């Protein structure tokens, strides 16, 4: 294995038939990290040979998701369809070598043989009379496919970096198609040619491709090309052990950013820990991941996707994040009234409790509300007649406060609470309702300071009956 050489080249090769899903993002991450760890190169290839299902929006979504996670390729992406002529060229080279053959079996003949095998309860494998036919016997005008001549004796072994030694009897391999009857190359051929031409040394991909590896080796051997190091990574399951689906949160990477309010470093860290580990470490930075990552740490068993764990990790990264950066993420969720400077000032308090960007926005919403405030049900229930009378006394007390800072406001209200023989919570609950319209917010002294003297007093007074108000702000 070329573990320390700078000659390591990995690739991530998604099909652009939809968004970049979470499993694909993890494959990209493992390829990126392996290349970085070994001082090698990480390449992207868009496998767009399925022209009916490959779309420009899907290609854009893949690049967008990779860019958000910081997993862009080291060179411009290769597009597989654009290389169709090169793939066909290799198929014709295999024909010329006698390693492949023209197969003139018709679809009807194949269907008949498949049905016969089914009736006899045996596995259907291509056994074409054209495999060893003399080229002089090839019909001039009849349509044909080009098939590889798979070995029929012996066995093929892969020393997989994740799965270990895996051996398959060559009799299990079939003479699969390289070129279709319209002359277009198949996926199996295109992948091998592209990996070879791109200089890929390590193929790190999902274990659903393990069977493909044995077929791809047939082409590699026939061409006399180097077989790459394989690492087939187990799939990701839902928390319940079932195949990952949308109900587990298995949506596109863009939804983790836009709909779920995740930070890229949290998703990066979480994907890293899905199937790879370094002791008990949960929080691992990008720089540490590059230093620590190797294939030996990838487990053989499927990993389970746990949304709760991802949310907790995201909360950790929100608390670590730069306040101005968080404010810039929250501002578009607030709307045109959002004040970046005020949001940035509020972030140290807002981010203490939030687990995602949407919770940050919800926590900041009180700053931009217009009077009269809309009260939620719990807040409205707190504003009893007694509470309103207390708010009138609090407002009168605060109106004489000239130092509108957290420390001064805290000292003032603590003194007031003692004078009234009340716990601070008895003051804070109705104040929070009056100032924010909700029962959850940053600390009450922070709320007062962030709103500013004029707005804070106006909101308190708005909840006091005019007859009870001691002053006007």
TrEMBL record:
<dbReference type="InterPro" id="IPR045462">
    <property type="entry name" value="aa-tRNA-synth_I_cd-bd"/>
</dbReference>
<dbReference type="InterPro" id="IPR033910">
    <property type="entry name" value="GluRS_core"/>
</dbReference>
<feature type="domain" description="Glutamyl/glutaminyl-tRNA synthetase class Ib catalytic">
    <location>
        <begin position="8"/>
        <end position="310"/>
    </location>
</feature>
<dbReference type="Pfam" id="PF19269">
    <property type="entry name" value="Anticodon_2"/>
</dbReference>
<feature type="binding site">
    <location>
        <position position="246"/>
    </location>
    <ligand>
        <name>ATP</name>
    </ligand>
</feature>
<feature type="short sequence motif" description="'KMSKS' region">
    <location>
        <begin position="243"/>
        <end position="247"/>
    </location>
</feature>
<keyword id="KW-0547">Nucleotide-binding</keyword>
<dbReference type="InterPro" id="IPR008925">
    <property type="entry name" value="aa_tRNA-synth_I_cd-bd_sf"/>
</dbReference>
<protein>
    <recommendedName>
        <fullName>Glutamate--tRNA ligase</fullName>
        <ecNumber>6.1.1.17</ecNumber>
    </recommendedName>
</protein>
<keyword id="KW-0648">Protein biosynthesis</keyword>
<keyword id="KW-0963">Cytoplasm</keyword>
<dbReference type="GO" id="GO:0005524">
    <property type="term" value="F:ATP binding"/>
</dbReference>
<dbReference type="GO" id="GO:0000049">
    <property type="term" value="F:tRNA binding"/>
</dbReference>
<keyword id="KW-0436">Ligase</keyword>
<comment type="subunit">
    <text>Monomer.</text>
</comment>
<keyword id="KW-0030">Aminoacyl-tRNA synthetase</keyword>
<dbReference type="Pfam" id="PF00749">
    <property type="entry name" value="tRNA-synt_1c"/>
</dbReference>
<dbReference type="InterPro" id="IPR014729">
    <property type="entry name" value="Rossmann-like_a/b/a_fold"/>
</dbReference>
<dbReference type="InterPro" id="IPR004527">
    <property type="entry name" value="Glu-tRNA-ligase_bac/mito"/>
</dbReference>
<comment type="similarity">
    <text>Belongs to the class-I aminoacyl-tRNA synthetase family. Glutamate--tRNA ligase type 1 subfamily.</text>
</comment>
<dbReference type="InterPro" id="IPR001412">
    <property type="entry name" value="aa-tRNA-synth_I_CS"/>
</dbReference>
<dbReference type="InterPro" id="IPR020058">
    <property type="entry name" value="Glu/Gln-tRNA-synth_Ib_cat-dom"/>
</dbReference>
<dbReference type="InterPro" id="IPR020751">
    <property type="entry name" value="aa-tRNA-synth_I_codon-bd_sub2"/>
</dbReference>
<dbReference type="GO" id="GO:0005829">
    <property type="term" value="C:cytosol"/>
</dbReference>
<comment type="function">
    <text>Catalyzes the attachment of glutamate to tRNA(Glu) in a two-step reaction: glutamate is first activated by ATP to form Glu-AMP and then transferred to the acceptor end of tRNA(Glu).</text>
</comment>
<dbReference type="GO" id="GO:0006424">
    <property type="term" value="P:glutamyl-tRNA aminoacylation"/>
</dbReference>
<feature type="short sequence motif" description="'HIGH' region">
    <location>
        <begin position="14"/>
        <end position="24"/>
    </location>
</feature>
<dbReference type="GO" id="GO:0008270">
    <property type="term" value="F:zinc ion binding"/>
</dbReference>
<feature type="domain" description="Aminoacyl-tRNA synthetase class I anticodon-binding">
    <location>
        <begin position="326"/>
        <end position="462"/>
    </location>
</feature>
<dbReference type="InterPro" id="IPR000924">
    <property type="entry name" value="Glu/Gln-tRNA-synth"/>
</dbReference>
<dbReference type="InterPro" id="IPR049940">
    <property type="entry name" value="GluQ/Sye"/>
</dbReference>
<keyword id="KW-0067">ATP-binding</keyword>
<dbReference type="GO" id="GO:0004818">
    <property type="term" value="F:glutamate-tRNA ligase activity"/>
</dbReference>
């Amino acid at each position: 294995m070329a573990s320390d050489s700078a000659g390591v080249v990995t690739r991530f090769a998604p099909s652009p038939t939809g968004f970049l899903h979470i499993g694909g993002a993890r494959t990209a991450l493992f390829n990126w990290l392996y290349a970085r760890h070994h001082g090698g190169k990480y390449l992207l290839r868009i496998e767009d040979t399925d022209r009916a299902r490959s779309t420009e929006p899907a290609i854009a979504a893949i690049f967008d998701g990779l860019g958000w996670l910081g997993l862009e390729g080291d060179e411009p992406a290769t597009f597989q369809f654009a290389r169709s002529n090169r793939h066909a060229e290799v198929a014709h080279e295999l024909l010329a070598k006698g390693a492949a053959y023209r197969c003139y079996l018709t679809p009807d003949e194949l269907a008949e043989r498949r049905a016969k095998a089914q009736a006899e309860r045996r596995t259907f494998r291509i056994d074409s009379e054209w495999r060893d036919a003399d080229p002089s016997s090839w019909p001039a005008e009849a349509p044909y496919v080009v098939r590889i001549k798979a070995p029929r004796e012996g066995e093929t072994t892969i020393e997989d970096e994740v799965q270990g030694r895996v051996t398959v009897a060559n009799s299990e391999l079939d003479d699969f198609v390289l070129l279709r009857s319209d002359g277009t190359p198949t996926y199996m051929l295109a992948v091998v040619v592209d990996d070879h031409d791109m200089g890929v040394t390590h193929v790190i991909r999902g274990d659903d491709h393990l069977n493909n590896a044995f077929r791809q080796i047939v082409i590699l051997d026939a061409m006399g090309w180097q077989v790459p190091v394989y690492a087939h990574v187990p799939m990701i399951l839902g928390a319940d052990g079932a195949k990952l689906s949308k109900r587990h949160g298995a949506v596109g990477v863009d939804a983790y950013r836009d709909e779920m309010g995740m930070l890229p470093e949290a998703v990066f860290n979480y994907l890293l820990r899905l199937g790879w580990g370094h002791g008990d470490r949960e929080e691992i930075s990008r720089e540490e991941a590059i230093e620590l990552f190797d294939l030996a740490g990838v487990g053989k068993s499927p990993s389970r996707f746990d949304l709760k764990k991802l949310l907790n990790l995201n909360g950790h990264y929100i608390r670590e994040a730069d306040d101005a950066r968080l404010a810039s993420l929250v501002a578009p969720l607030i709307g045109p009234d959002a004040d970046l400077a005020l949001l940035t000032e509020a972030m140290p308090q807002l981010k203490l409790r939030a687990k995602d960007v949407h919770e940050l926005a919800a926590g900041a919403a009180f700053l931009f509300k217009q009077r009269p405030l809309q009260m939620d049900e719990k807040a409205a229930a707190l504003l009893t007649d007694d509470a309103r009378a207390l708010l009138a006394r609090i407002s009168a007390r605060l109106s004489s406060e000239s130092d509108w800072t957290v420390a001064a406001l805290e000292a003032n209200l603590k003194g007031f609470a003692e004078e009234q023989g009340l716990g601070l919570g008895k003051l804070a609950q109705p104040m929070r309702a009056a100032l924010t319209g909700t029962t959850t917010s940053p600390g009450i002294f922070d709320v007062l300071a962030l709103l500013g003297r004029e707005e804070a007093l106006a909101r308190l007074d708005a909840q006091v009956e005019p007859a009870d108000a001691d002053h006007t702000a």
